[in-house]
Amino acid sequence: MEKVDHQLKKKELRKSLLKTRQSMPVAEWKQKSHLICQNLLNSPQFNQAKTILAYFSFRQEPDLSLLFTDTSHRWGFPRCVGYSLCWHICTHQGSVITGCYGIPEPQPDAPTIVPEEVDLILIPCVACDYQGYRLGYGGGYYDRMLSSPEWANKPTIGIVFEFGYLPELPVEPWDKPLQGVCTEFGLNPLQIIKF
Questions:
Q1: Could you report the per-residue pLDDT of 72-96, keeping only the tens digit for each?
Q2: Whole-angstrom distance, CA of residue 89 vs CA of residue 112
Q3: Residues 41 and 49: beta-carbon distance below 8 Å
Q4: How many separate helices (H) and strands (E) can be counted in the chain?
Q5: Contact present, 90 and 77 (Cβ < 8 Å)
Q6: What is the spatial distance between Cα 73 and Cα 145, in angstroms, rounded to a whole number?
Q7: What's the pLDDT at 127?
Q8: What is 2-189's CATH number?
Q9: Distances (CA, A) of 3 to 6, 23, 173
Q10: Ordered alpha helix ranges (H), 23-83
């Protein structure tokens, strides 16, 4: 019964937060996205990373595209393949296509990135809590990835607007806490992020 209750709470919370996010005026969305980018640019965790996995903004997720022009980092972006995420190097917006969920993703023939090369993962979140647990869209792609041994110890920062940074979320046994959360108000390291 508790599992059903958790799922229902997550579903209701996700719906409410997505509605709030998508009703945000574009100017406010851009301003808050810009502040999130600035907070990342000011963090040692970000600056020490060479290869960073990120995402292309979808449904008014925080937009990190300001960061992608920084050639001191190598950028990887996800492509949904079955129930997994495949990561590709993507150097310019022109090589992006619309994937199966309507999410922008790299071309299938773009060069791939293996876990050993990755220094930092910036993870989109519908919500995050103060312990680093994340609420996503419900597909489980990031949960499955972060549960696999080759990804389990990679530094992770959840990217979310402040209204989605909550004291506590319903947590499932398979949920993995992120090591930090970045909002427009700052980067909150929850664990020591090692490089």
A1: 999 999 998 888 999 999 766 557 8
A2: 6
A3: no
A4: 4, 12
A5: yes
A6: 22
A7: 97
A8: 3.40.50.10420
A9: 5, 30, 10
A10: 26-41, 44-48
Contact 166, 125 (CB under 8 A): no
Q: How far apart are CA 186 and CA 190, in angstroms?
A: 12
Separation between Cα atoms, residue 49 and residue 30, nearest integer Å: 25
CA distances from 154 to 10, 84, 100, 133, 173 (A): 26, 17, 27, 15, 20
The bridge status of strand 120-124 relative to strand 156-159 is parallel
Query: What is the amino acid identity at position 91?
Result: T
d(Cα 60, Cα 58) in Å, to the nearest integer? 6
Q: What is the pLDDT of residue 1?
A: 41
Instruction: Give the whole-angstrom CA distance, residue 142 versus residue 125.
Output: 10
- The tokens for 74 are 């190598």
Given a cut of 50, the residues of the chain with pLDDT beneath it are 1, 195
3-state secondary structure (DSSP) of residue 124: strand
Strand partners, 156: 121
Q: What is the pLDDT of residue 94?
A: 55
Tell me the C-alpha distance between 111 and 107, whole Å: 9
**166, β-bridge pairs:** 129
Backbone angles phi, psi at 187, to 5 degrees: -100, 120
Distance, in Å, from the CA atom of 19 to the CA atom of 21, rounded to the nearest integer, reads 5
Domain ranges for the chain, please list them.
2-189
